[in-house]
Amino acid sequence: MIARVVVLGLALLAIAAWATTIVVTFPAYDLYLKEAFPQANVVLLTKGVSDPHEYQLTPSDVQMLLSLGPNDVIVTSLHAQFELRILQMAQSGEIKAKVVVVPQIAQYLTFDGRLVRGNWSEGGVNEHEHGLYVPNAIRIIEAVANATGLSPNQTYLEQLLELNRTYCCKFSGRAVAVTPAAEYILYWLGYRDIVVLIKEEGVPPTPQDLQRAAEYMEEGAPALAVGVSGETLRIAQSLEDKLREMGVSNPHIITAVFNGSYIGTMEQVVEQISQRTQTAQPAQAGSAPGYLLLIIAVTVAVAAAAIAVFKFRRASVH
């Protein structure tokens, strides 16, 4: 707690030293905003927090937010209760900074693969985009530029646009999203038949989703888990080991941890998926039925890991 107060105190000093501050409520929006606006002070409000969804504003947080001026901006996904409080404080005039509300400008996926623009009233919307859908990253950078009057770093912006031009819709067919945020990367890459294993906290994969995932992986489809900590790696490895022990052929899960370079991590994901699609061998005819008999047993193993995987560390993206 003392360490966090010290960090926030330093953040307050930094705010005073920079012309513009960009406060981000959730990872991984901060990764590309730091690169896009090197002239600004980008502050991740929930840095080091294991589960931003359950975060509550501290007095130091409130002090920092109240110190922001009209040239500053807050980027919020409105994904947690503390974010709603920030928006209320801004609407009441307590917070002077401008607010970029991500759902007002971003596109979201439904779990059945439809792309919608912030309309969560339809139901079945995957709210766990967490900055990992590249077209949304471009929109958010533009919105922050408009709100602050800052010009984004043109070299970085061109690199992000080139990333989108090069890899958007590069693949097609079936894929497995182990975490909800992974659906956004797979969809961006061109996959349209995606089974999402973990959709919400505390809700394990259904036997039907597990059956689909088993069929897809046996056919050579890529499986992806993304997060912002090493927990994603550990959970994926544990699941792979369990499946391997039960005789499942090639149960490889691609993992990506977004805690460094946004573009670099995306490129690593593409490279691993390319390798998977080039080396995967579909199951021979007649092998799938026996494989699918394992699904109910696998359900137990996966359900035990479901909550931990979804926690993105839950901090996501799924």
From TrEMBL:
The keyword Iron does not apply. One of its GO terms (biological process) is metal ion transport. Coiled coil: none annotated. Keywords: Membrane, Transmembrane, Transmembrane helix. InterPro entries: ZnuA-like (IPR006127). The chain crosses the membrane at residues 291-310. Pfam families: ZnuA (PF01297). It comes from the Archaea. GO terms for molecular function: metal ion binding. The keyword Membrane applies. This is ABC-type Mn/Zn transport system, periplasmic component. It comes from Thermoproteus tenax (strain ATCC 35583 / DSM 2078 / JCM 9277 / NBRC 100435 / Kra 1).
